[in-house]
Amino acid sequence: MIKGKISTVFTKPGTTTLELDEKVEQDSKTLQHKEFDWTEFEKTSKPGLNSNNSIKTKTGEVVYSHAEYAQDAYHLYTENTENMRFAVPLKGETVDALVVSVDATTAFLDINYREYAYLELKKEEKRYLENIVQGEAIRVKITNDKENNNAIMASYSEAIKVMKEEEIKDSINMSCAFTAVVRELISGGFIVEIDGIGCFMPGSQVTMNKIDNFEDYVGKELIVMPVNFSPEKGTIVVSARAYLQTLIPSSIEHVKQNPKQKYKGTVTGTTKFGVFCEFGVADAPKCLTGLIHISDLDKSHHNLHQDRNINSGDVIEFYVKEVAQNNKIILTQTPENNPWNDIDEKYKVQSTVEGKVLTIKEYGAFVELEKGISGLLHFSEYDGVELTEGDKINVKITRIEKSSKKITFTISK
After folding, report:
1. pLDDT tens, 102-118?
2. What CATH code is carried by the domain that includes residue 283?
3. CB 255 within 8 A of CB 294
4. Most CB atoms closer than 10 Å: which of 7, 122, 255, 271?
């Protein structure tokens, strides 16, 4: 330490110059010409400055200090700086932030850096503004490269898009569904948007059936499932059809449990033998497709069919007549032709009825009670009795399953 008296010299008005007296200047010159030996200095016992080996650093260095609280100060410093980032945040990086304060135009963010980041409220989507509140922890995206003294700018809305895009990618083949809005018709399909994330949906993946007018779907809201991601193009591929397929089992079960329900559906195509219709159950989207045979069309639609005046897109009403093998659905506009609708009123379990043997298989005989209603008489139930097709026999009903249209018998003795 240089000891001496400081003199104050006034020069121009408003300025001062500090000068050392002559003795101090001489001491200073002596120190400048004398080589200072720091190692020797450490070995000497200087008042107020001792080597303190009790201080332990993470790197194993020896710390010298004259303060008794040096170790505590070291720990306090490392605790406060351990998680602090010193590297400049990069453009496009997403970081955690604490909203320090919010005014009419700007939110000030602590991103664990030596400077605050700034978020311009006018650039944020209105639906997210309610989350930008003082004291709230949020995730933000750095939107600029910090150069010289430029402020670090960030975006909450952009960070949400990054997280949403990752969520969509992670849900591929995980049976996750999202609500999407069809924004644009392009070659091969559509651009759809999920919470601001643009995705591609092939035209074949919009519905369960062929589409006649693709433009009708622009602006519509659909439920889709992510099915693929192309890293080369950066494109997420989604499918509404994949979602509809997941609804089929429960919709089929609903149909079986409600045989008398009337449905409203959309014509998807016509043939010389009938009309194909797409429909849904309850509030579910249209995921089922059935056929109305020309014999099951009501009089007005039968005439329209004969004149080829039933077209794709027409809306008609019908009933489910039967759910056949492989979930093939047979529809009808004349429910009186479906004898299963009131089977529980006409036939009772344990009652004896007369039937006609329709066919005989290895495992038993099929017996018809009336047109459209037949059931199985297992071979074990008529062992020793000879049956031939066309025979009229008395059978006892052992089971009736209205939903699956199954009925079983035993031979009446």
Report:
1. 999 999 999 988 889 99
2. 2.40.50.140
3. no
4. 255
Other CB atoms within a 10 A radius of the CB of residue 175 amount to 9
Measured CA to CA, the distance from residue 404 to residue 387 in angstroms comes to 27
Distance CA 109, CA 119 (A): 7
Query: Is 17 inside a domain boundary?
Result: yes
pLDDT tens track for 357-392 = 998 988 899 999 988 788 999 988 888 788 999 999
Q: Which amino acid is at 146?
A: K
Q: Which residues pair with 9 in a beta bridge?
A: 17
Residue 40 resides in a domain: no
Instruction: Give the chain's largest Cα–Cα span.
Output: 140
Secondary structure of residue 108 in the 3-state scheme: strand
Interval 176-201: pLDDT, tens? 999 999 999 999 999 999 988 999 99
Q: What is the mean pLDDT of residues 136-154?
A: 87
- How is residue 130 written in tokens? 């309610």
User: In sequence order, which ranges of 155-239 are alpha helices (DSSP H)?
Assistant: 156-170
According to DSSP H, which parts of 266-362 are helical?
A: 299-306, 343-346
Q: Which of 281, 309, 337 is the last residue of a domain?
A: 337
Q: Is the pLDDT of residue 96 over 90?
A: yes
Domain of residue 136 covers: 94-162
Q: Is residue 401 part of a domain?
A: yes
Q: Could you give phi then psi for residue 316, rounded to 5 degrees?
A: -135, 165
CA torsion sign, 89 to 91 to 92 to 96?
positive
Token pair for 124: 């944020």
How many separate domains does the chain show? 5
